[in-house]
Every structure is written in structure tokens, then in C-alpha cells.
Amino acid sequence: MNEGRKSEPGVVGKAVIDALKNGYKHIDGAYVYLNEKEIGEAYHEAFTTGGFKREDIFITSKLWNTRHTPSDVKPALEKTLADLQLDYLDLYLIHWPISNSPDGPDFNNIENPVPIIDTWREMEKLYESGMVKAIGVCNFSIKLLEDLLKEAKIKPMVNQIELNPYLPQPKLVEFCQKNNIHVTAYSPLGSGGVPSVLKEPILEEIAKKYNKTTAQVALSWNVQRGITVIPKSVRVQRIIENSQIFQLDQEDMDKIATIKTRLRTCDPKLFFNKDIFESSYYD
């Protein structure tokens, strides 16, 4: 489950507890979602009086763009761990391949030209220290991954990217899987924009066949591609619904592959004025 920053204060912690109670084992977060203290209270409750064991839950957080300077990487993790009330993370990711000034607000677009490999070296140290059990990246294109793999001592274990039937990115998924980089899909249901993934006619047709929702079809499609999905929801019914993955026939997988609509909703060109995907925008 993804507990992204759009949720209202006081809602996210309850959603985490609800997710755990309904069998979720992976909780995805980030410093920049501005809710890690609230999530930390939920973890404290879950692991002290809630009947859950820390070792049974996979917890992810992310290094923000303004913390790419090597001397800032470990302190950033230490703050996240303190806020989450944890001794370690299961996975720590570089949130974007974009480095912004540490002297401005978290969402500033002031460039701070720190080479990715310099930040990655610090991520490797965190992994070697045991503070994190795995390290990876988010939003990396094939080109960015190729460049990192040439110099990394420890290769990224995960690439978290936007993936749904309107943005299947088959070339990037194939590259990651060939290089033993696990793929995690954020926004696996789209982001509620227009056009809406959940109102796609092909998904509606398949959902009717199985007596499922279009959300369940979209999530199952990604899982059958070998991809972890982290849908975001704070509603108990949606949390339960999103966990009910099922097996699609190959003919239905093939039908989904024929969807022509392409839409990237989390676009760095809009947020950061950076075209990090270039020619591979939809690949």
C-alpha cells in the first residue's frame, strides 16, 4: 500500500492500521509525503500492542531531491527512521533522479548538480551498515539505469515507476527484469485524471467477465507481469478490494496490451521542469 502525501492528516495512520489488519505486508512511504511522524505512531501501535511483528512487514521510504548531497543522505535516513519509530527500513529508494538545492523548500526547483553516482555511493553505505535491507531507485529510465549500473558497486535492487494499462512501459520493465532489478508500480490505477484508467472500456469488459472491478483487473494485470503494486487508498473497502488479486486468462492479458491510450500522470516536466525520460517517455 502507498500512503502518499495527498491524504488528510489523521487519516493516513488509520489507513495503515486498516491495511495491516487486512493482510497487507508492504507499506510504501516517503519523506516528502509529510506524514512519516503520523505513520510512525501507527507502526508503534501495530508493533507494540497491535499484534504485528516488525519483521513481517516490508516498509519502504525514499530520499528526497533536496537530500542528494552526499553529506545529507545518512541524516535524511536517520530522520525518517526517527519519525517512523523504526530501527531499519526494508527498502530505501532515491525518489527521483533529480537533485535540487538543500537550502530551499523541499519542493524547490533550484538545481543542485550532484551526480547520481555520488548519491548512490552513500546509499550503498547505508545498505552495508544494515540501516536498510535493500536499496533502489524510482523513476529511472533505461539510460539512467545503464549509467548507474556501469559504476555501482551494489546495483539497485528495485526501480519504482509509474505503471498501469495507460503506461505499461514494456521496454523499461523488460530491461529491469533482465538485470534482476525488481519493478514496483506506483499509480497502478492511474491518478483519477482524464482519461481514467478505471473507465477504460477494455478493462470494463474484462471486469464484467470475472465479476470483478476494473481496479482489480488493472492490479492483477501488473502482478501477472511480475510487478509489485502499491495502490493508494485510505478507505477500508478499497483497501480490501485492492488486495483481491486474481488470475487473468492470457487472452485478457493480450486484450489489455491492445489499449492504445498513453498517459503519464506523474510528469517531471510539469513538477520539476525536467525531461528525464526523453525519447523513452512511454517505453
Quick rundown:
The chain is of the alpha/beta class and 283 residues long.
Indicate the topology:
Blueprint: H1 12-21, E1 26-28, H2 36-48, E2 58-63, H3 70-84, E3 91-94, H4 116-129, E4 135-138, H5 142-151, E5 158-162, H6 170-178, E6 182-186, H7 201-210, H8 214-224, E7 228-229, H9 236-242, H10 250-257, H11 268-271
Parallel strand pairs: 1-2, 2-3, 3-4, 4-5, 5-6, 6-7
Helix pairs in contact: 1-2, 2-3, 3-4, 7-8
Summarize the structure in words.
By secondary structure, the chain is of the alpha/beta class. The chain has helices spanning 12-21, 36-48, 70-84, 116-129, 142-151, 170-178, 201-210, 214-224, 236-242, 250-257, 268-271, and strands at residues 26-28, 58-63, 91-94, 135-138, 158-162, 182-186, 228-229. The chain has a seven-stranded parallel sheet. The protein is globular, with a radius of gyration of 19 Å. 41% of the residues are buried.
Main beta-sheet annotation:
7 strands, parallel
Strand content: 5-15%
CATH homologous superfamily annotation of the domain at 12-156: NADP-dependent oxidoreductase domain
Distance linking N and C termini: 25 Å
Q: Average pLDDT, to the nearest integer?
A: 93
The appropriate CATH architecture of the domain at 12-156 is Alpha-Beta Barrel
Total number of helices: 11
User: What structural class is derived from the secondary structure elements?
Assistant: alpha/beta
The dominant shape is globular
Total strands: the figure is 7
Q: What portion of residues is helical?
A: 25-40%
Side-by-side strand order of the widest sheet: 1-2-3-4-5-6-7
CATH class of the domain at 12-156: Alpha Beta
Instruction: Please write the string of helix (H) and strand (E) elements.
Output: HEHEHEHEHEHEHHEHHH
Low-confidence stretches: none
C-alpha-based Rg, rounded:
19 Å
CATH topology of the domain at 12-156: TIM Barrel
